[in-house]
TrEMBL record:
Domain RNA polymerase sigma factor 70 region 4 type, first and last residues per copy: 98-150
UniProt name for this protein: SigE family RNA polymerase sigma factor
Taxon lineage: Bacteria, Bacillati, Actinomycetota, Actinomycetes, Propionibacteriales
Domain RNA polymerase sigma-70 region: start-end pairs: 12-72
Pfam families linked: Sigma70_r2 (PF04542), Sigma70_r4_2 (PF08281)
Organism: Kribbella deserti
UniProt cross-references to CDD domains, sorted A to Z: Sigma70_r4
Similarity section: Belongs to the sigma-70 factor family. ECF subfamily.
Keyword DNA-binding attached: yes
Record key words, sorted: DNA-binding, Sigma factor, Transcription, Transcription regulation
Top-rank taxon, per record: Bacteria
InterPro entries: RNA_pol_sigma-70-like, RNA_pol_sigma-70_dom, RNA_pol_sigma70_r2, RNA_pol_sigma70_r4_t2, RNA_pol_sigma_r2, RNA_pol_sigma_r3/r4-like, WH-like_DNA-bd_sf
């Protein structure tokens, strides 16, 4: 497969992965572009791998993790706005669906990547380990810690909602 064919076939998949990892559409497009650019530079090597798409996904994930380590990457989701409305907001369903994105944004970059690859990209631990360059046992441990963090944040929110 030529690079142009690969980019046309898998470009949107890379953007979706970038979005689920970063939570930002513009950053997702940047990550996909970086991954495709690096894959293009080394296309012969990419083609020789067992799974070229996994190789490019690994480039994208490593680019995201590298981006989060830089000082300029300090964006954080806005804090929840407290309001004392007496009438229920019709957009409450949208806000509730946004809770998962906010909880994911609070995880470390590696924890978020592991959960995204497992649950959004439907990868098994071995494949995730290949993409991240770590052992499958590290993938399981990271996923366990991340899920525990999400559960504790959810329980904290439940307790907080009961307070007047």
């Amino acid at each position: 497969m030529e690079f142009e064919e690969y980019a046309a076939a898998r470009g949107q998949d890379l953007v979706r992965l970038g979005f689920t990892v970063s939570g930002d559409y513009q950053r997702a497009e940047d990550l996909a572009q970086i991954a495709l650019m690096q894959a293009f530079r080394n296309w012969r090597r990419v083609q020789r791998t067992e799974d070229p798409h996994n190789y490019v996904r690994r480039i994208l994930v490593n680019s995201y993790l590298s981006m989060t380590r830089k000082r300029s990457f300090t964006e954080a989701p806005a804090a929840d706005i407290d309001s004392e409305r007496t009438v229920p907001d019709p957009a409450i369903d949208i806000v509730n669906s946004d809770d998962l994105w906010r909880a994911l944004a609070r995880l470390s970059a590696r924890e978020r990547v592991v959960l995204v690859l497992r649950y959004y990209q439907d990868m098994d631990d071995r494949t995730i380990a290949e993409v991240l360059g770590i052992k499958p046992s590290s993938v399981r441990a990271t996923a366990s810690r991340a899920l525990a963090s999400l559960r504790s944040a959810r329980q904290y929110r439940r307790v907080d909602e009961r307070l007047p």
